[in-house]
């Protein structure tokens, strides 16, 4: 029988099968990667909601750490356990609180207070009072009443200038309105639950952030190469990448950071979580904060070689003397005098809002605080 194939034609048997074998792993990795990133974005949204709940709880409870953690547990409960109609609400919140304590102890959950700071209390703090108006020994709080007349109050540490009609404290670089903002930061290690992709991503990022020595890795016949460390690694993330679960088993995790700012609805009281200004991200770009064994412990980052932002005085002692609350005679500029030569505009290095109108009113996101005489603040 005569061969009827065209001249130069060669058999292509099995070509489609080989191409499929080459394409399937790539498509599978892309699909798993997209799924994992979708889960990470979902987790970030849930964490932002939980942190807002924590800030709300703290704003009505003198910024107490226990109230903040209780609000954080309530906010994380839907993310951790979903909506279970068969479980009573107190039981669900209790289980969430227990898991939060485990996460804080294991290092894959950590939170800290960014403001008000120790310097905020040094400028604007007053002896705390109970519901009957009697002084509470050993407690200092930032007044929260009649903020529409905050320009009439003077900071104990001296006046650095004016923002609108409000004096700016020399220690904190905050007005009284700024000092009444509660700012929190949450760092959370999201479990990488998608097979293969999660472990590869954590392996890469541990090397990039300097948490592990550079090493090569292969995925079957594919050489994944050797990642290079970043020029500015995140030292705080190392404790989260392989933080253990409740059983002690290391779990690959991806560090996520969220922050929230809310107006205090009660006088903020100084606590063990109150940071110094030099420990906040406002003055320390690298922050240098790493999660500790419990809650949000502030630790110095060994990788930081920058000099401290140190024109500020040392933090005041735990208990401020009574003279710290006295108003110095003739201190600062006279509010309402029309003299704006000492005014200090809002900048990224100052606490408070990022946008201020010409009137000096404070803006938080798209909301604005209006000063109306006689209205509740």
What does this structure look like?
The chain has 377 residues and is of the alpha+beta class. The protein has one domain (24-300, 314-343). The protein is 28% helix and 17% strand. It has seven helices and twelve strands. Strands 1-6-9 form a three-stranded antiparallel sheet. Strands 2-3-10 form a three-stranded antiparallel sheet, covered by helices on one side. Strands 4-5 form a two-stranded antiparallel ribbon. It starts with 14 loop residues before the first helix and ends in a 9-residue tail after the last strand. Residues 282-294 and 296-377 have low confidence and may be disordered.
Q: What labels describe this entry?
A:
single chain; 377 residues; three-stranded antiparallel sheet; 28% helix; elongated
Q: End-to-end distance, in Å?
A: 100 Å
In helices, the fraction of residues equals 25-40%
- List how many beta strands DSSP finds: 12
Q: What is the mean pLDDT?
A: 75
Number of domains: 1
Record the strand order, biggest sheet: 1-6-9
Indicate the proportion of strand residues. 15-25%
Q: What global shape is seen?
A: elongated
**Rg calculated over all Cα atoms:** 27 Å
**Low-confidence regions:** 282-294, 296-377
Number of helices: 7
Short structural description:
Helices cover 28% and strands 17% of the residues.
What are the SSEs and their pairings?
Blueprint: H1 15-59, H2 65-81, H3 89-106, E1 109-115, H4 118-124, E2 126-129, E3 135-142, E4 159-163, E5 166-169, H5 176-179, E6 181-191, H6 197-208, E7 217-219, E8 222-225, H7 238-241, E9 253-263, E10 268-269, E11 363-364, E12 367-368
Antiparallel strand pairs: 1-6, 2-3, 3-10, 4-5, 6-9, 7-8, 11-12
């Amino acid at each position: 029988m005569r061969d009827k194939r065209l001249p130069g034609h060669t058999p292509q048997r099995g070509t489609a099968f080989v191409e499929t074998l080459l394409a399937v792993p790539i498509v599978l990795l892309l699909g798993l990667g997209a799924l994992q990133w979708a889960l990470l974005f979902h987790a970030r949204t849930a964490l932002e909601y939980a942190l807002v709940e924590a800030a709300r709880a703290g704003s009505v409870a003198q910024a107490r750490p226990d109230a903040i953690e209780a609000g954080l547990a309530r906010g994380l409960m839907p993310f951790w356990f979903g909506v279970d109609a068969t479980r009573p609400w107190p039981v669900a919140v209790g289980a969430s609180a227990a898991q939060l304590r485990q996460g804080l102890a294991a290092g894959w959950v950590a939170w800290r207070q960014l403001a008000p700071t120790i310097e905020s209390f040094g400028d604007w703090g007053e002896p705390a009072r109970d519901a009957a108006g009697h002084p509470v020994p050993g407690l200092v709080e930032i007044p929260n009443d009649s903020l529409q007349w905050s320009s009439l109050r003077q900071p104990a540490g001296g006046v650095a200038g004016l923002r609108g009609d409000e004096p700016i404290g020399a220690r904190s670089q905050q007005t009284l309105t700024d000092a009444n903002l509660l700012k929190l930061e949450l760092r959370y290690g999201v479990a990488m639950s998608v097979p293969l992709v999660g472990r590869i991503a954590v392996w890469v990022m541990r090397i990039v952030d300097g948490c592990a020595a550079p090493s090569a890795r292969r995925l079957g016949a594919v050489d994944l190469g050797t990642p290079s460390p970043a020029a500015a690694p995140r030292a705080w993330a190392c404790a989260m990448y392989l933080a253990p679960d409740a059983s002690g088993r290391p779990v690959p995790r991806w560090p996520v950071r969220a922050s929230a700012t809310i107006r205090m609805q009660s006088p903020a009281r100084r606590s063990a979580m109150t940071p110094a200004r030099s420990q906040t991200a406002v003055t320390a770009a690298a922050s240098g904060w790493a999660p500790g064994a419990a809650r949000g412990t502030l630790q110095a980052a060994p990788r930081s070689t920058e000099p401290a932002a140190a024109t500020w005085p040392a933090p005041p002692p735990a208990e401020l003397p009574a003279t710290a609350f006295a108003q110095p005679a003739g201190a600062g500029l006279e509010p309402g005098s029309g003299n704006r030569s000492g005014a200090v505009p809002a900048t990224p290095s100052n606490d408070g809002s990022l946008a201020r109108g010409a009137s000096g009113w404070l803006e938080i996101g798209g909301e604005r605080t209006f000063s109306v005489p006689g209205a509740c603040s």
